[in-house]
Amino acid sequence: MNVTQLLVSIIDDDESVRESLPDLVKELGFSAEAFSSAEEFLASDHVDQTRCLILDIAMPRMSGPELHRELMRRGRPIPIIFITALKDDTVRPRLIEQGAVDCLFKPFTDDALQEALSSALRAN
Amino acid sequence: MAIEIGKSGLLDALPVMLWTALPDGSIDFVNRRWTDYTGLGLHEAQGWDWQTIVHPDDLAGLVQGWQFVLESGEPGEVAGRVRRSDGLYRRFLIQCQPMHDDAGQINKWCGVALDIDVSRCQEEILRQHEVDFQLVAESIPIPVVVTSSSGEVEGLNQPTRDYFRKTFDELKGWKPSDVVHPDDLDDTIAAQVAAHQNGSPYHVESRHRRADGVYRWYSAHGLPLRDGQGQVLRWLHLLIDVDDRKRAEEALRTSERNARLIVDGIPAGVAILAPNGEVEAVNRPMLKYFGRAEDEIKQWATAGVVHPDDLPRFVESIERSSTTGNPYNTEQRLRGADGTYRWFQVCGLPLRDADGNIVRWYVLHTDIDERKSVEQALAENERNLQTTIDNIPVLAWSARVDGTAEFLNKHYLDYAGLTAEEAQDWGWTAAVHPEDLNELAATWQAIMASGKPGEAEARLRRHDGEYRWFLFRVNPLHDEHGNILKWYGVNTDMEDRKRSEESFRAIVETTPECVNVIARDGTVLRTNEAGAVMAGAPSVDAVVGQSFFNFVAPEHQEEYREFHEKVCAGEKGFLEFDLVNASGVRRHMETHAAPLRDSDGSTLQLSVTRDMTARALAEDALRRSEAFLAEGQHLARMGNLSWNVTSGDIVWSEQLYRIFEFEPGTVVTLDRIATRVHPEDMPQMADMVGRAQRGESDFEYQHRIVLPDQSVKYLHLIAHRARDRVDEIEYIGAVLDITQRRVSEEALEKLRSELAQVTRIMSLGALTASIAHEVNQPLAGIITNASTCLRMLAADPPNVEGARETTRRTIRDGKRAADVIARLRALFGKRAVTVEPVDLNDAAREVIMLSSGDLQRNRVMLHTELADQLPPVGGDRVQLQQVIMNLLRNAADAMSAVNDRPRRMLVRTARDEDGVRLSVRDAGIGFGPEGTERLFDAFYTTKSDGMGIGLSVSRSIIERHNGRLWAQVNDGPGVTFSFSIPCCSGDAITAHDAPAKHVAANRTTKNVAGFS
């Protein structure tokens, strides 16, 4: 395994996303780890290595934006791509303003994801 | 003296027939004049032989008269016709005068026969004109005076001189006034003057004064003596003494006059009747009473003086008495001058002569009218008395001294149903109530022992068995020594009084006002419960006997005592005072008092005393509550009204005038109200008036009024028909000024509808988002997997295994997406129809109730025609009500723009083939011809702001109930929407799954739309 590969962590409460998205991210040349909740991610030892977070907005307990603020609080400004199944046009600008790299509405294409990841890593 | 004169032969020369007679009456001398006249010599006339020349008719009288004179021994006259020698009879007055001897005995009679056939006398005088009148005169035994033609006295005889006791010379110059009585002077002078003028004889009766001053009556005859040529030479005046006759006549006249005066003076009618009953005379009182002329009274039988009813009886009495000669005594009414009839007793007494023949009837009329009236009244009284005693509405009786009954009046006997015999003695006690008998008997004994009037109360059994209370009153009757003879009693029915007394007592006992009877010294004699309470005493008995003054507050004692004195002195009065009762509680009292006469004659105070404390408080409370009410009405902007529809009278509270901005107190009429009502709301007012006139029990309206300044007020009227008036329709109502509420409500409503719209949109968005979220998740997986798969296959070498894996996941996510849809369907399909029996009328009423505010705001006039005895339908009550609500809203909305006609809505239910139909008819704008087709499509609407969801949902609900929903255009304006649902059929209620599933399968799309 190429250790130089950048780690992209995926956090979503939806299982099909956790199953499918890591494979696509890997196909795009990144290393990928999936977590079912923000708490699980924070408890893991991958936080420091994670170069980009693909984060679901609506999750039970800690939501995506809350995790975002927690990381900021901890001084871990990880570039974040939010994903959501709720199409709300008002959400995206607000999240970007708060520091998110992008916000993708499910279902999104692989190209959109690649572009967003590129942006994230550039910001890195 | 005559005899001496006779001897002289002069007697023969006297121009008068003269004779003398012996004391026995036999003639002993006749003068020549006598023999010349009669043609008889002395011997033929001597003794009693002269009778042959006396007219046979006059003889008896003359002889009798002559004998009468002889017997009397006094001068006298007789008259009769005496035959002249040629056979002619002439009437003579023969005056006879006795002559007395020295002893005073009659020794002779002298008579003069005066020819009283005047013509003969004149002849005689004429023939004898040569006669020496002085001589003649001297020879006549009566005063004779001869005067010249001019009236100068030429001669007078001895009797004249004797009479006047004067000499010839003294008498020569006499005047009638010297000798004639002043009263007769005029007549005498008049007769003489007339005689001298006419030369005719005169005859006057006059009184001449004798020498001793006594006047005697004389018949004065004056005869003219003429010569051959008929010239009056002298007058011969003869004075024939008629004093006795005159006096007798006078006496008779006086006596007659006196008799007449007496008769006239009798204060009763007197009549004198002829034997045949004819009225001869009546006295003055009778004339006065009848007020008629005597002649009329004589015709009494036909003059109408006797009362027609009495006339036959009266006539019969008189006729019978005329026949029998018995006195009569009748009573009848006679009509007086004033036209009224009075009763008279008429007594007729016959006057009989010596032979017993009735000469006259004396009749006396006595006025007995008063006696008659009294008698009649008395008779009437007596008649009435028995009737009265028997019929007076009391039971009257009398008892003997021993207490036994003697008499009971008819009323008593009738009342008790006893006969007089049965009631006698102690029999009457059978009617006394057994419970009262002992006491009554005791009281009766006590009264009898006291000998004074007394009374008792007891019940007496009526003939029909009912007992009634009676007051027995009894009085003793005393004789002149004060001993009791009898007892008289009267029993008065006092049942009603007793009852009213009882009810009065009950009233007095239960009245919340304190009733007292207080003696003059202040002792409470009687009081009622309220009195005991007022006094703070445990019972009435605890108060009786106490001094009332003790209860009066000290500072009012004096005033109260003064008041009490006044009342006991007989005045009515009113006083307010404070009372301090036994518990020390002070109360303000008001007392009305009147004097009450006690049985012992003393005066007590009867007072009704009222506790003013509570009233004062209550008055305060009332004033406060009135003020509260007025203030409350003012604050609530609410006015009250009463409206008598029958009479048209409308009474408003002050606040209502204020709301309508009418001058308070002015007369309110419907027309006047109409001037204020908003033109658009006039139909509602008309509708309301119509309802009121039909007498509907309650109604409620919201309408607007426009005030003079063009501002608009919203009013809410609630009226309720007063139930206590059957014949009249009268409503009591309240009018609320809801303008403020309405304005805020409208603002709120606007806000709400805006909000609802937002919410509707929001919820739709949320749902959409939710659905999108659920679907997007698996979609995201699918797309991600597919992208990965493509990338894996595009790699060199292609990662087939990875591609296979991602494809497998794609398929799985596809299934997941389908599961999401299925889950959604399950979620929305969860609300299955709950089937239960539903009364569509009830359901509709509930909805109407919920919507009424909404409808009224929209000024919709809702009418209902709900059919009786509708069978229940099977269905979900809530869903059906949503449909009805939806139809009502649609109908109201369809009329919101209608201002040129009433916004009338009719909800009607009816039986329909195998189900029940409900229809809602509006008068709205309707829809175009293509509208009907698309009406029930989701999202089709004629409303600019509507979502068009309602009807489509309604239809789906109705169809799920196996019913149908349809619309029809009305003949007039507007549309009628109807639905019909099958009746609920027993078992079907439980088998709800089948139709629910069926509907769910077929109407998915609309279902979803319906819940958007």
Features:
heterodimer; A: 124 residues; alpha/beta; Rossmann fold; five-stranded parallel β-sheet; 5 strands; globular; B: 1012 residues; alpha+beta; Beta-Lactamase; 7 domains; five-stranded antiparallel β-sheet; 37 strands; disordered N terminus; disordered C terminus
Strands ordered across the widest β-sheet of chain B: 2-1-5-4-3
Q: Which CATH class of chain A applies here?
A: Alpha Beta
Given the C-alpha coordinates, what overall shape of chain A results? Answer: globular
Greatest interface: A-B, 22 and 27 residues
Q: Helical content of chain A, roughly? A: 40-55%
Summed up, the domain count of chain A is: 1
Strand element count of chain B: 37
CATH-level-4 superfamily name of chain A: Response regulator
Overall average pLDDT of chain A: 88
- Assembly of the depicted chains: heterodimer
Total beta strand runs of chain A: 5
Give the CATH topology of chain A. Rossmann fold
Helix-strand makeup class of chain B: alpha+beta
Which blocks of ≥5 consecutive residues of chain A have pLDDT under 50? none
Structural class of chain A: alpha/beta
Characterization of this structure:
Chain A has 124 residues and is α/β, with parallel strands linked by helices. Chain A has a single domain (7-123), classed as 3-Layer(aba) Sandwich (Rossmann fold), CATH 3.40.50.2300. Chain A is 40% helix and 21% strand. Chain A is built from five helices and five strands, in the order βαβαβαβαβα. Chain A has helices spanning 15-27, 38-43, 64-73, 91-97, 110-123, and strands at 7-11, 31-35, 50-56, 80-84, 102-105. Chain A has a five-stranded parallel beta sheet, sandwiched between helices. In chain A, 42% of the residues are buried. The model of chain A has no long low-confidence stretch (mean pLDDT 88). Chain B is of the alpha+beta class and 1012 residues long. Chain B folds into seven domains: 1-116, Beta-Lactamase (2-Layer Sandwich); 266-374, 2-Layer Sandwich (Beta-Lactamase); 392-497, PAS domain (Beta-Lactamase); 517-617, 2-Layer Sandwich (Beta-Lactamase); 638-737, PAS domain (Beta-Lactamase, 2-Layer Sandwich), CATH 3.30.450; 751-827, Orthogonal Bundle (Helix Hairpins), CATH 1.10.287; 836-1010, 2-Layer Sandwich (Heat Shock Protein 90). Chain B contains 36 helices and 37 strands. In chain B, the strands form eight sheets. Chain B has a five-stranded antiparallel beta sheet, with helices on both faces. A five-stranded antiparallel beta sheet of chain B has the order 7-6-10-9-8, sandwiched between helices. In chain B, strands 12-11-15-14-13 form a five-stranded antiparallel beta sheet, sandwiched between helices. In chain B, helix 29 packs antiparallel against helix 30 (800-828) and helix 31 (840-857) packs parallel to helix 32. Chain B starts with a helix and ends with a helix. Mean pLDDT of chain B is 79; it is low at 1-8, 937-949 and 987-1012. The interface between A and B is medium-sized, with 22 and 27 residues.
